[in-house]
């Protein structure tokens, strides 16, 4: 399709560029990150030239460039690009547009990845206030920003506050999305992580087992997320001094991974 569009419409036609953007997106999801990054950069430059640097389509592709930079662990460049996209979207679409909020969220992610956790916390808190005002306190994306806030509280060693936030977000996600939704289970895991850092390993084990059981029920026993949850459970058993149980669980997880890899 791309070759046909280039031949009939030209390489810089907006429909051709849309096809190339979609190709870059799918290359990234197939794990071909370098190829995806290179193509997204080319499309972003072409869209800026043809449509203008502030056009929503140009910004969508620049957002994809930033995403692939993160996948390549080039977080400083990703941060700069996300910030530029967020500012341009605020001008073009408005400060409360969902796409503007999305770029601001990814700015917080990049700051956290760079270890600039206090700045990330500030970014998330501002985003939470704006999303709650524009979309509602229980909107899934408001809750996602609150999850990011909790993660960075933990990175800053503020584990009591992190636990409080994780529990609140978990309860809200369970109510809004359902108890077995992936985001709800991620929050249960965050509760467990905070409990572990606070030395409350027995309570953490309850949370880890809840996550593992739910993922096994919803996804299946040999799915990657289920196996990660079982690894968490085994680590927690080790911390509780239950080494034999932990070793048995690690063996079962390794066997399931081996079968799944065939």
TrEMBL record:
UniProtKB keywords: Kinase, Serine/threonine-protein kinase, Transferase
Molecular function, one GO term: protein serine/threonine kinase activity
Organism: Streptomyces lividans 1326
Transmembrane segments: none
Amino-acid biosynthesis listed as a keyword: no
Electron transport as UniProt keyword: no
Coiled coil region boundaries: none
Gene3D superfamilies named in the record: Tetratricopeptide repeat domain (1.25.40.10)
Protein name stated in the entry: Putative serine/threonine protein kinase
């Amino acid at each position: 399709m791309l070759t046909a569009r280039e031949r009939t419409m030209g390489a810089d036609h907006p429909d051709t560029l849309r096809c190339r953007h979609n190709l870059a997106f799918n290359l990234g999801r197939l794990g071909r990150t370098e190829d995806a990054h290179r193509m997204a950069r080319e499309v972003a430059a072409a869209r800026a030239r043809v449509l203008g640097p502030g056009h929503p389509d140009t910004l969508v592709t620049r957002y994809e460039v930033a995403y692939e930079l993160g996948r390549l662990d080039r977080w400083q460049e990703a941060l700069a690009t996300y910030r530029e996209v967020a500012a341009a979207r605020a001008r073009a679409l408005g400060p409360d547009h969902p796409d503007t909020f999305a770029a601001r969220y990814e700015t917080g992610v990049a700051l956290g990845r760079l270890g600039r956790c206090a700045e990330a916390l500030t970014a998330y808190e501002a985003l939470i206030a704006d999303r709650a005002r524009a979309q509602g306190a229980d909107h899934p994306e408001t809750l996602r920003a609150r999850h990011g806030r909790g993660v960075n509280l933990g990175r800053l060693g503020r584990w009591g506050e992190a636990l409080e936030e994780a529990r609140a977000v978990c309860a809200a996600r369970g109510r809004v999305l359902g108890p077995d939704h992936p985001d709800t289970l991620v929050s249960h895991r965050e509760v467990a992580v905070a409990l572990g850092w606070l030395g409350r390993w027995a309570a953490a084990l309850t949370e880890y087992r809840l996550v593992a059981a739910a993922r096994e029920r919803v996804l299946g026993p040999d799915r990657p997320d289920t196996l990660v949850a079982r690894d968490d459970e085994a680590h927690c058993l080790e911390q509780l001094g239950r080494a034999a149980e932990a070793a048995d669980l690690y063996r079962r997880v390794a066997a399931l991974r081996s079968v799944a890899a065939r």
